[in-house]
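INFO batch 0412 | record 1 of 1 | parsing
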Amino acid sequence: MRLAPPFVVLGLTLALGGCARSRAAAEPDEPTPPGEVWVSAARLRKAGVKIEPAAERVVRDTVRTSGRITFDERRVSHVYSPVSGRITRIDVQLGQRVKKGDVLAIVLSPDVGSATSDLAKAKADLVAAEHDFERKRGLFAQRACSQQDLEVAEDSFHKAKAERDRALQKTALLRAGGSVDAVSSTFALRSPIDGEVVAKAIGPNMEVSGQYGAGAAAELFTVGDIDQVWILADIFEIDLGRVKAGAAMSMKTASQPGRTFEGAVDWRSSVLDPATRSAKVRGVLANPDRSLLPEMYANVRVVVGERKAPCIPRAAVVHLGDRDFVFVERGPAPNDRVRFERVAVEIDETDDDPNVLAVKSGVAPGDRLVTDGAILLTAQ
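INFO prediction complete | emitting tokens
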């Protein structure tokens, strides 16, 4: 028997090998079910795909609205002059801390002299009317004067007493806002509370109108303390029933974008604004560093409930069309691959962490999700 030449054997070997490879290529892998992706473990490691279980957390349900910072009305006082006159001295400056009773300014006013002289005259008239009434009463007892004369004296006495009381009340009103110097006809405006001079609207030799005069009186000083402030927020009618007194609230301002201020609701209006169909809700906020200033605007969130829900990183969510999906690990697949299922989810924003989303449906606590590298599976 003649043996085949060596080059023929080599050719047959290569041909057989090529046929074997062709048959292997012609045999397809196990088909991937719809909505699933199978990726090798080596490729997952190389791409840095991260898989983590969905954790259950307490999620706060909130009502979002806008609000405005105001003074705590129990910690602020608006100072007006009760008398008309001219400012002769100013004892405080903006930002200065004052105690209750400290002099803020001195007003030279003719109202002071008029009030003190009216009181002195009323007291003198009352003494004279009282003496006349007592004298007429004695004469009437001795039948030395008529009953009509006695009644006229008694009426004069009561009128004089009423005029004295009116003059006393007027001077009391003046002293309620400061102190009166009858000799120099000056009035000292005093601080009604402890606090800081946060506003000043007067200057030396400025003419001011009194509260009890004919003209409109202007506010001269604002003395307040902003270590604690109020936030007034508008709650629309649809959410009003869920907001209760004592509910926790948080807010952010444009001046402090990375900071959240915490407080609590202490009052809710019992009437609606007919124009906006909303009601005012007031919260109390601690402000120890005085970073919150009256009249600032803020974004407000009021906590209306709490619930437990699976929470996932924002990076785990893939947006396809108008729906949201995540990839859930479903165990091993043939040929050393890992099986992932694309699952539609309904998500909700959380208030505690902007990078974490609460899942309403589609994911259960403990499900292993692709939290980093989901774009690789999307491309598959």
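INFO post-check: Residues 209 and 216 are 7 Å apart (CA to CA).
INFO record closed
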